[in-house]
Amino acid sequence: MLINNEKPHVPTLFSGLRGTPDQMQELKRHIVEIARILKGVDFWQTDNLMTFAKNLSFLDDKRLTDLVFNHANHEYDKAIIWRTHILTWAAQNALCVSGDFVECGTHLGYSVNVVADYIKLSSTSRLYWCYDLFEGNAYKELDLDGLEPIEFVRKKFEDKKFIRLVKGSVLETLKLQSPTQVAFLHLDLNSAPAEEAALRHFVPLMPKGAIVVLDDYGWSNYKPQKVVADNYFNTINIPIVELPTGQGLVIIQ
Question: Of all residues in the chain, what percent are helix, strand and coil, respectively (each to 5)?
Answer without folding.
Answer: 40, 15, 45
